[in-house]
Amino acid sequence: MNIEILPDAGAAAARAAALVADTVRANPRAVLGLATGGTMLPVYAELVRRHQAGTLSLAGVTSFNLDEYVGLSADHPASYHRVMAEALVARTDLRPEAVHLPRGDAPEAEAEARAYEARIAAAGGIDLQLLGLGANGHIGFNEPGSPHGSRTRTVELDEATRTANRRFFAVGTDVPRQAITMGIGTILDARACLLVATGPAKAPAVAAMLEGRIGPRCPASALRTHPRVTVLLDRAAAAELSHPEAFETRIDDSAVA
Ligand code: F6R
Q1: Which of 10, 11, 148, 197 has a CA that sits 20 to 30 A from residue 234's CA?
Q2: Residue 224's closest CA among 156, 109, 124, 139?
Q3: Ligand 1 atom closest to 199 (CA)
Q4: Is 235 in contact with 5 (CB distance < 8 Å)?
Q5: 3-state secondary structure of 187
Q6: What's the mean pLDDT in 227-237?
Q7: What sign results for the dihedral spanned by CA atoms 234, 125, 32, 158?
């Protein structure tokens, strides 16, 4: 596991975008696993900046998002379909038909989850999976207690997750209680993973992920069993690690295109 602690959230996002860009430059037809949430927005803004500067093309990329809320249609303002459409598709050359998310309004959510898993396999699997981290240690919407071998399925969201994500919903609208998420096993099948966690609210989950027991209490701890994982933290998110100095890395920003 490669762990880098950067000065702040902006530096972590820039570094994440640089690693995504490296992957796409090495393989313009890469299959990317994408995440949503507040942590990812500056990462996508940085990818957009690179695209506009003419140094990054996503035209050959295929993407699969981690998750979607059950019950939300693609045009719902808080759906992850909308987030991806606005943050990346509208502002880069990523082809809309190459962007995949589970359909939240599918008539049979479980059947949609199984079909989504099959679509990932049919695309040849994921080259690089981007991940955020829940304050409760979740990855995707695999809440504590999720089996490490779990596959794409319908899950109940923890109250803590619904509360944390209320900020993305209009006042007066309810946060869905269920989501379709890639499983932990699905995530671990990616050839490489890149997790980004920033801000003090993530510090306990970061410590549990990296220094706690590997097990269902902290879903993200499963990443320690994967051979190719990079974890990007800012100083605030790293604050509860017992020996953060062991991980501190200096990134030469002049090398980042
Ligand atoms: C979103 C997802 C979640 C988020 C996590 C962190 O697609 O899968 O695991 O990455 O909840 O969200 P933020 O970045 O909003 O703190």
Answers
A1: 148
A2: 139
A3: 16
A4: yes
A5: helix
A6: 97
A7: negative
| Residue 138 falls in the annotated catalytic set | yes
Distance CA 185, CA 233 (A): 23
Pocket test of ligand 1: the residue of 72, 138, 180 to mutate, having most ligand atoms within 8 Å of its CB, is 138
Please answer whether residues 151 and 159 qualify as being in contact, where contact means their C-beta atoms are separated by less than 8 angstroms. no
The closest alpha carbon to 249, from 12, 38, 71, belongs to 12
CA separation, residue 173 to residues 48, 90, 103, 159, 165 (Å)? 30, 26, 20, 15, 12
CB atoms within 10 A of CB 223: 25
What does the alpha-carbon distance between residue 82 and residue 67 come to, in Å, rounded to a whole number? 13
d(CA 53, CA 45): 12
Letter for the amino acid at 24?
A: V
DSSP percent split of the chain into helix, strand, coil, nearest 5: 40, 20, 45
pLDDT per position as a tens digit, 77-129:
999 999 999 999 999 999 999 999 999 999 999 999 999 999 999 999 999 99
Q: What is the pLDDT of residues 209-230, one digit of tens each?
A: 999 999 999 999 999 999 999 9
- Per-residue pLDDT of 129-138, as tens digits, reads 999 999 999 9
